[in-house]
Task: inverse folding
């Protein structure tokens, strides 16, 4: 059975604010997470529809909708009755759900962060029931891996990885609010373009440095001495031909 999860991520902002904050977060997050030659190199940022897959039996489908509420819409994504019955609804709490220890930063913790420009935060327990303004990002994630014996494990792993990304990214979108709060959509698009260029350059430099380091290692490695040849049996004196640094006599 295909694993369908509907993530509902509430944010202490309006939908219009979220659209700007999300673009800012993605651009900055991509730059910060691009290290050691790994990351996302942006070739073109445009709408695309491509049905092909390099792994025929693996696919991920994500539907998204934003609404100015705290996650109370039951089927805003227009799922079929069969999909609605099989889906798992998962509320992501950006303040109180645990993130991976290596991603934790106190400055990016909504439990402690207070926006100077908007006055929002810190977020107390139960904030999703009392916060105003508030909006919700609804995401229906459909993961399909049709390989017998591995389907359940792979689908659950992918869903878990997507959830971790959503949690971290939305925490950052809120705790970076003062950086994007006064931006217009044009401002954030310009920022996005600038960060894409910086990210591409960062990846390029890291790759070049890695290649140079590998070449340096290859040239600095000492040559391995040849193994000595064993003398033929029955011979009292080993042949001097091909004699190595080790004397068998």
Result:
């Amino acid at each position: 059975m295909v694993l369908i999860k509907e993530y509902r991520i509430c944010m202490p902002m309006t939908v219009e604010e979220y659209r700007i904050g999300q673009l800012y977060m993605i651009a900055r997050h991509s730059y910060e997470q691009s290290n050691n030659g790994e990351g996302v190199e942006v070739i073109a940022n445009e709408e695309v529809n491509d049905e092909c897959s390099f792994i025929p039996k693996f696919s991920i489908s994500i539907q998204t909708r934003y609404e100015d509420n705290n996650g109370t819409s039951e089927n805003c994504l227009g799922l079929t009755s069969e999909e609605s019955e099989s889906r798992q609804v998962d509320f992501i709490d950006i303040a109180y759900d645990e993130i991976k220890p290596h991603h934790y930063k106190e400055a990016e913790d909504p439990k402690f962060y207070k926006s100077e420009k908007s006055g929002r935060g810190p977020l107390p327990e139960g904030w999703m029931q009392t916060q105003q303004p508030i909006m919700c990002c609804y995401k229906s994630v459909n993961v399909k891996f049709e390989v017998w014996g591995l389907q359940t494990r792979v689908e659950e792993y992918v869903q878990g990885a997507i959830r971790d990304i959503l949690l971290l990214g939305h925490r950052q979108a809120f705790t970076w609010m003062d950086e994007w709060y006064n931006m217009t959509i044009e401002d954030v698009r310009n920022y996005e373009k600038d960060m894409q260029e910086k990210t591409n350059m960062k990846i390029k430099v890291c790759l070049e440095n890695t290649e140079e380091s590998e070449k340096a290692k290859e040239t600095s490695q000492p040559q391995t001495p040849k193994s000595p040849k064993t003398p033929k049996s029955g011979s009292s004196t080993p042949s001097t031909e091909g004699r190595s640094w080790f004397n068998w006599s």
Remarks:
- The longest strand covers residues 135-145.
